[in-house]
Amino acid sequence: MTAFLAIVKLTCRSAVRSHVFRLLLILLLLSIFLLPFTLLGDGTPKGEVQIFLQYCLGFVGFILCLSSVWLACSEVSSDVETAQIHMIAVKPVRRAVVLLGKYTGVVLIHLVLLLIAAVAVYAFLSFRLSSADMTEEERLMLDEQVLTARALYKPVRPDFNALAQAELDSRIALAKEHGQDTLRFQDDQARQEAFLEIRKELIATYGLISEGDSLFWQFEGLPKDLTDDDVVFLRYTVYVNRYYMQDQNTVRGHWIFAANYARPDDNGGETVVSELVATPEEDVLTAAQNEIMVPLRNSFFVYDGKAEVGFLNKDTKTSELNFEEGKGPFLLIREAGFFSNYCRAILVMAIGILSVTLLASAVAACLSLPIAIFFSAAYMLTGGLANYLVTSIPDAIDYQAEYTGTFGYQFGDLLLNLIVPLQDFFVTGYLANGELIGFPFIGMLFAKDFVLRMLPVFLLGAWIYTRRELALVSKRG
Which of 61, 244, 327, 421 lies at a CB distance of 3.0 to 4.6 Å from 349, suitable for a disulfide? Predict the structure, then answer.
């Protein structure tokens, strides 16, 4: 244990003397104290706070991850290449202890920096909020939509398999009724192809609403202990037509909410009935995230953990409105405070530092310094590319169901199963939108990325490190 602590101490001392580390530290300080003054939101206090949280904390996390990669590679590789490792190798200290000590030292100094940065950012945010000139309405909006932690509930997804099968059976029955040829549906492969085509069509057209029509979404699993004092928000993004990346503007429509009432029945009991309550017709900004407060009391809106929301298209300028699956509508209900959510975001960033340092230490234990840094950087960039392939392809094609069958999506999905994308550890978007960063999410992230992916890589690197021929390596260096 004494040798381990000594290695940790020497690693921290060596980090402070590194010129590259000092440069990254200066960038970290600038991101905390200078970057907030250069960020401009949409002109509202809510927008400014969202931009501040998302970019300032995000830049802090990026700098710390970059610094930990550099320092881990430098500390592990340079000792081997400069033959300084021989001074330790001749002592009764196992190489695995040396590697673990260097990893711990790099992680320790960066966790301390993360803690200092987190306190500084929170203090700066508190100072700006206390000195800001806001109306009561702006402050209330900020407290309820940003400085909070709201659980996000998604609508129940339709069973597209059952719907597609029913539609296929209906088409076959209709063809028989009109005496049309149905032999092409007798072959199993032909039926499967027709079924998949119908399913794609259903998914692609599910969120489309023509002028004068409406679409309803059901929500389940909502809290059953809500009071009328709890505020429920509806978040949504609507697009014009199926090609939703073009011709966006404002459209008109009504939101419709199902109100549940208990009425006496003929048997002396009560029967719960639902009545539809529509909001006044209003202009809605398309291709942008919108939030409105549910106008009903929760005792009427949520019944047995269920709720129903609909939208009526009243726009005469466009042919269709598109509520793309995955973009809403969502219901948001407060579950915790902002400080608790802020601490959880910092915890996720700490897991990111632990993970990327594991990777860099493992790579540096096997390779030279330049190659180790290049490999670590390439690993993180590849994770970003894979994440882009999986999440951005739907924005470029018509049928949203078809992107899962493209080569780009399949390749990106394969990479994401092998590589940990750095984006996994940047949850500032959740924080800025007032969304709860739940402990189940944090636990799954730790287990999936740190334990199951990064830790085996580190153990493999440590095993190679213990069997590496140091004399030949230092001679080549």
Answer: 61
Under DSSP, the state recorded for 451 is I
96 and 138 part of one domain: yes
- Residues 143, 19, single domain; the answer is yes
Q: Which of 121, 53, 38 is CA-nearest to residue 428?
A: 53
Q: Does 58 reside within a domain? A: yes
Q: Residue 41, SS3?
A: coil
Q: Which of 104, 144, 472 is nearest to 292 (CA)?
A: 144
- Tell me if residue 430 falls in helix, strand or coil: helix
- DSSP classification of residue 394: G
Are 11 and 124 in the same domain?
Answer: yes
What type of residue sits at position 305? G
Does residue 157 fall inside a structural domain? no
Tokens of 7: 């290695």
Reading the block at residue 461, the tokens are 């690197």
Beta strands in 246-381 (DSSP E): 250-264, 270-278, 282-285, 290-293, 307-313, 320-322, 330-337
Pair (221, 312) in one structural domain? yes
Q: How far is CA 3 from CA 6, 28, 96, 99, 435, in A?
A: 5, 31, 12, 12, 44
Residue 171: give the domain boundaries: 164-196
Residue from 394, 388, 423 nearest 406 by CA? 394
What CA–CA distance (Å, rounded) separates 252 from 240? 11
Q: Which two tokens stand for residue 85?
A: 């490792």
Give the chain's domain count.
3
Q: What are phi and psi of 395, to 5 degrees?
A: -70, -10
> 286 and 373: one domain?
no
Listed as ranges, residues in the chain with pLDDT below 50 are 244, 394-401, 472-477
**36 falls within a domain:** yes
**Joined tokens for residue 59:** 């830049």
Cα distances (angstroms) measured from residue 212 to each of 43, 283, 319: 35, 15, 10
Judge if 88 and 182 occupy the same domain: no
Length of the chain: 477
Pairwise CA distance, residues 284 & 209, whole Å: 14
Q: HSE, CB side, 13 Å, CA atoms: give it for residue 58.
A: 17
Looking at the structure, tell me whether residues 234 and 293 fall in a common domain.
yes
Q: CB-hemisphere CA count at 13 Å for 402?
A: 10
Residue 436 pLDDT: 93
In this prediction, residue 248 carries a pLDDT of: 59
pLDDT value at residue 282: 85
Does residue 159 form part of some domain?
Answer: no
Q: In sequence order, which residues have a C-beta less than 8 Å from that of residue 215 and are 6 or more positions away?
A: 207, 209, 310, 311, 323
